[in-house]
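Incident log, structure service

09:12 report received: a user says their structure output differs between two submissions of the same chain.
09:20 pulled the input from the user's history:
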Amino acid sequence: MSNPSQADRPEPTRRAVLRAGAGLTLGAGLVVATAGSAAAAAGRSAVRGAATPNAVTPMLQTGTPLCDTPGDSASAQGLGSGDLGIPYYREHDNSWGYVFGDSWANAAQQGTYLGSPVMLAQATFDNTGGSPISFSWAMPTGGQANQLFNYNHQTDNGYGWEFSRIPNDCIEFGGRTYIQYTSVFTWGPPAGYDGSLMSGVAYSDDYGVTWQDYAYHWPGDRQGTNQSMYGMWSFAGIDPDGWLYIFSKRWNGTHHNTADGGAIQLFRIQPDDFRAGNFGAQQNWAYLNGSWQWTQDVGPSVILSGNNIGEFSVKRINGTYCMSYFDVADYSICTRTAPRPDAVWTAPKVQIAGNSSFPPSHWGKPQLPYLYGGYIHPGSAGANSLTLVVSQWNGTQGQSPYRVLQYDGINP
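09:34 re-ran on a clean worker, output below:
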């Protein structure tokens, strides 16, 4: 049953919502970080951060735009503007994929609207930061970039009216590729509502050419389950213990979900069960009878909470679990680490700030106004030298960048 308070509301674009929110946070006189700037990082060589005699320390990418620049590698594959750029490892051919949200054929959101999600691929990733991410081909057909999923925008595709399907994470294992997504009903929900229709998992058995949905969808706000903790997922990966670990939280696509609270939960599932769509086989990390334990007796407990959290990412990098997320209240990209997914996480550490002059915790941090996202590249050089893919929207639709940028050498 849909919530009547959301019916027939005007549909502001995601960009307009984000612009309005960021405008409340930005002070006068901020200067946008120079796109494509590169700064030397002391003590980091080309080999996973080790000091190599006579080696030249590479220049790291510290805000290098990966799209929205005419003539760049993204536009060569048919994508001019896009956001998110969620990286994942394509294990079948040792390449890398990048999944974008809303995308256009030309820079500054001009030309043909491609849809969401959209995927570009890269043959080889330079995790030293010596050269930026450069896209080698586009999916789904290897030709020009196009929408992956077969659905229509701003219509009812059989589940209820939906505006768009936004990817949250992607993973490939066992010959199958998976994208977890949120179907958005409205980008401008009333306070306390998340504006989602549902969440789902789509899969591809030809590595991104064709896609289909699992039959089960997690109901969202418009289907009567407002603030579902299964709205937005991050695949942490298959641990050496054999389990696939998944973190999830409420959908906060507008970045102004007042009921979000920054809560994150954790569950795990055997890869074969996940492939079969046997999602009921998940085990939940929960506080039960006075202790934390893996169980199927109750649902997952909240493991982290605090400031509102937008997009987030968790990946196992060289044996350490690393988390990054857009802290909406602090207006920054923050990171944490843990030795295990079910262990205690470190305190948040600010890495990239929308405003590096305030508060003091932002001093000296790279500045990127109108930032969001912040996805960990699974091919990062190490747990103390992450590559993050961060989105930017600076608020003037049709005239300004809507893009993703690469930051290397991030020590969480």
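09:41 both user submissions now match this output. Likely a transient worker issue. Closing.
09:42 reviewer note: The chain has one domain: 4-410. The first helix runs from residue 14 to 25.
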